[in-house]
Amino acid sequence: MKAIIGYVSFALLAYVAFLAVTFPADRAYAMLQDKMPPGVHLYELHGSVWHGGAGAAQIGRYRLAPLHWEYRPAGLLSGRVDVKVSFDSGPSHASAIIGLSRDGDIRFSDVDVNTPAGELVKLLQLPIVQLKGNITAKLAGLTVEDRRLTSLDGTLTWAGAQVTRPRNFSLGGLEADFKTDGGVVKGTLRDKGGPLQLQGLVTVKADGSYRVNARLENRDPNQAALTRFLHQIGRPGPGGRVIVNYSGKIPPLPVGM
How far apart are CA 101 and CA 82, in angstroms? Predict the structure, then answer.
């Protein structure tokens, strides 16, 4: 009897796995469309729930096309549903493994993003700002628990950084290295050559409280607009440097993000 039950259980599990692998993505989306976060829409779906894609994904005002996904069953061993997601939308491309736990916590791993700075401005809906250059993110991990950032490990780079509105000035290359130590996210800010000299530290605690301490200096005397900008965000210090000290608390992410 135990052998029969074992065979039946295995057959049922195999059938469920078969359904997951082959169930069409467009039918699954039609069933779950009313449960999607506000402002998120998928178009021209193909493939299955396990491995498929969409001709385009609309997230608010931002359009990603095309979008691909691949279910990673190994995440179940850690109590998560893991999906590898990637898109290549003209000048921007990104990929990451997104893991969702039972209690709603989200973990991003193997994050690789490359996008023009102007595309990021569109995504963040900042109409009064125009940026140039290229932004890359290579993150081993990023975790959001209870709608707050609790871990961040990796590097963000802004190459050829330039602000063209509301004022026009160049910054050069900028980089931020993040690691999580004892539940605190710590970031090191530096320049990689160019008009802006930057040295700084960032800390973010699990409760959302943050602190930014940095020293900035304009290496290019011909960029008066950059000097004025630095004096607006910090206080003059010795040797022409500007001291920046900010602290506060980051609000929880909106529900549905």
Answer: 9
Could you give the CA distance from residue 17 to residue 13 in angstroms, rounded to a whole number? 6
Q: Report whether pLDDT(101) > 80.
A: yes
Lookup result for tokens 């063209």: 164
Distance CA 215, CA 219 (A): 13
Using the 8-state DSSP alphabet, how is residue 240 labeled?
G
pLDDT per residue over 59-97, tens digit each? Answer: 776 777 788 999 888 877 778 889 999 988 778 999 999
For residue 227, give the H/E element and its range: helix 224-233
Token digits for 92?
């921007």
CB-based contact 189:168 (threshold 8 Å) = no
What span, in angstroms and rounded, lies between the C-alpha atoms of 54 and 46?
6
pTM: predicted TM-score of the whole model, two decimal places: 0.84
Q: Which residue in this structure is represented by tokens 């602000």?
A: 163
CA–CA separation, 173 vs 157, rounded Å? 8
CB atoms within 10 A of CB 168: 13
Structure tokens at 219: 């290496």
The rounded distance, in Å, linking the Cα atoms of 109 and 74 is 14
Alpha-carbon gap, residue 164 to 226, rounded angstroms: 11
Say yes or no to pLDDT of 10 above 60: no
